[in-house]
From TrEMBL:
The lineage of its organism: Bacteria, Bacillati, Bacillota, Clostridia, Lachnospirales. It comes from Blautia stercoris. InterPro entries: Aldolase_TIM (IPR013785), Elp3/MiaA/NifB-like_rSAM (IPR006638), MoaA (IPR013483), MoaA-like (IPR040064), MoaA_NifB_PqqE_Fe-S-bd_CS (IPR000385), MoaA_twitch (IPR010505), MoCo_biosynth_MoaA/MoaC (IPR050105), rSAM (IPR007197). It is an enzyme of class 4 (lyase). It comes from the Bacteria. This is GTP 3',8-cyclase. CDD domains: Radical_SAM (cd01335), Twitch_MoaA (cd21117). Residues 4-226 form the Radical SAM core domain.
Length: 324
């Protein structure tokens, strides 16, 4: 299906929980958030029904997010349920990696295609400052364990919140030493992210080129989203950038999002959308459910306006509540 601006929408990001075992400074307050009760979270059967219906509109790829998705029990069960849908080409997962070592085998057996690990630093002290928790070793162990499954594509997502250039160089080094792609994501002014200045792509490229040599842009795509990549001689993986601020890519956006409470959103920045949970629990038919999702997709906004100030429809929830 295409929206009214002609963009083909084939990618659904699903938050399966608002809970997280970290407290990253740009994402959540130190004492956490008021969590949604379990009865208000979509069940796995409800998620599978929604996905079965939305595939008739052309959705082919699904990303599971949170909060931290691996804090929800039996996440691999949902992966398996979604992989059973014949129209779904890929099911992927974004995680902070804290529980990955324990769950990677089950995820692999369920058929997970790709895993993105959020990691902003490989320095223990900086990790604890950013996340307000201990456990960098758990993330690195999870990465090492995941590397034992070559059929699963691995990526690192780094929000460059640490000021020291050496931190970016150290994170990028993971792509030199391992067959994984390291992507740098510009800070977006949503929730606590509004309190931080974003670091632009050109600045990061300059830092990395001083350390590792020339970065050559490549046209190859390595995922479902708008990331573009560079290669560096001697690196096993690629360096990528998701630059929503300096390289606005709304004209290429192919996604919609669903919160853990079942609210379907067409754009990260806007509150507008529809509660699929309410429709389902009020006894809607599959046709009614599909038509409601079709309307949200068709009315997808033309783009974000992060650089031009607030409007009344701005999303007020935190990234952990939306599904980052």
């Amino acid at each position: 299906m295409k929206d009214k601006y002609g963009r083909e929408i084939d990618y659904l990001r699903i938050s399966i929980t608002d809970r997280c075992n970290l407290r990253c400074i740009y994402c959540m307050p130190e004492d956490g958030i008021c969590q949604v009760s379990h009865k208000e979270i979509l069940t796995y059967d409800e998620i599978q029904r929604i996905c079965s219906c939305i595939t008739t509109l052309g959705i082919k790829k699904i990303k599971l997010t949170g909060g931290e998705p691996l804090t929800r029990k039996n996440c691999s069960t949902l992966v398996r349920m979604l992989k059973e849908l014949p129209e779904i080409e890929k099911v992927t997962l974004t995680t902070n990696g804290m529980l990955l070592k324990e769950q990677i085998q089950e995820l692999a057996e369920a058929g997970i295609d790709n895993i993105n690990i959020s990691l902003d630093t490989v320095d223990k002290a900086k990790f604890e400052k950013i996340t307000r928790r201990k456990g960098l070793f758990k993330v690195l162990e999870g990465l090492e364990e995941a590397l034992k499954y070559p059929n699963i594509g691995l990526k690192i997502n780094c929000v460059p919140v640490v000021e020291e250039p050496e931190n970016l160089v150290a994170v990028a080094k993971l792509a030199k030493e391992y067959p994984i792609h390291v992507r740098f994501i510009e800070m977006m002014p949503i929730g606590y992210g509004k309190e931080f200045l974003f670091r632009g792509e050109s600045e990061i490229c300059e830092i990395l080129e001083k350390a590792y040599g020339r970065m050559t842009p490549i046209s190859m795509r390595y995922g479902n989203g708008p990331c573009h990549y560079y290669e560096i001689s001697g690196f096993l993986g690629k360096i990528g950038f998701i630059s929503a601020m300096t390289h606005k890519f709304c004209d290429q956006c192919n996604r919609v999002r669903m919160t853990a409470e079942g609210y379907l959103k067409a754009c990260l920045q806007y509150q507008t959308g529809i509660s699929l949970k309410d429709l389902i629990r009020n006894g809607c038919t599959d046709e009614e459910l599909t038509q409601a999702m079709k309307k949200v997709i068709w009315e997808k906004p033309v783009g974000h306006h992060f650089t031009s100030g607030n409007i009344e429809e701005d999303e007020m929830k935190l990234m952990s509540q939306i599904g980052g």
